[in-house]
UniProtKB/TrEMBL annotation:
It comes from Pseudomonas fluorescens. SMART domains: HTH_ARAC. GO terms for cellular component: cytosol. It holds the Pfam family Arabinose_bd. This is VirS_1 protein. GO terms for molecular function: DNA-binding transcription factor activity; transcription cis-regulatory region binding. Residues 234-330 form the HTH araC/xylS-type domain. Keywords: DNA-binding, Transcription, Transcription regulation.
Amino acid sequence: MLHSHLTTLNAVSRVLDTFKAEGVSYDILLAGSGICEADLARADTHITTHQEMRVCANAVALRQDVGLELGQRMHVSSYGMLGYALLTSATFGDALQLALRYPALLGTLFELSLEPDGQRIWLTAGGYREDPALTQFNVEFCLVSLKVICADLLGQPLPLLGARFAYPSPAYQARYAEHFACSLQFSAQANAFAFDRRWLEQPLPLADVITHRAMAERCRKQNTEFTGRQAWLGRVRHLLGAQLDAAPGVDGLAAQMNCSSRTLRRHLHELGCSYQELLDELRFERAKQLLGADELPIHRIAEQLGFSETASFRHAFVRWSGVAPSQFRP
């Protein structure tokens, strides 16, 4: 099954804000994502990570180092109830443990962990399973935003003892010094930054037992609902992804999900997508895999994806990626 889950519009909103001052239109940044301006006005809108990554890919195409700036904009207040629960935790360590407990609410694409190393603690981001082409962007976005959250919680910058990145030094390495005031290591085994473990015991300035208890309970309930939606979407993706050569249509998929077509459409709408958008997403992901393997001719790939004509597949792929299938091949 392809890896995908639900997330909020937080990151997408920050992307739009970042380029707004430069006069870049929303249409350019939202192109191919299935997100419209009306969605941005709804506080309860949820999107898939595929949609979020499409917007981020558009941003990276405009500016390669944008992940650093976007991460700097992600303050703890961006995370709703989870943000309040973190701020009102008793200690810095308590807040970090709570954040790691609810990755779905944090909206991270990584598996976060705290790894002891003598007197140091490494806050590590691993387990990335999204678009490989956006790995560096997402690491920058993740680690910088975590550093910002830490500073917001403490009411002061968290002194870093080192930062590691599991990719070669980028051309804009000098910009890293603006965000990580510590020694930097590239081509490392992991993506992480370190701090003195004594900070885990640091009391937080906005700690409040009553508020924290209430917010933590609401986070628990929201996480249960959120992950339930993810599980449902995961099942839909799994069923549809297994029959791309002969897609069942809305009625057929609804029958496989043991619900009515109307219910299926309603649930997909609530999750910010439609049957056709989901089918296109899965076809695009499979097409990239098959084209990357460079084993099948394009007409056979078109057949495996359920296109009756190779020309239809070519047109669809250009719409999804901006290039022809033959240009995408290595």
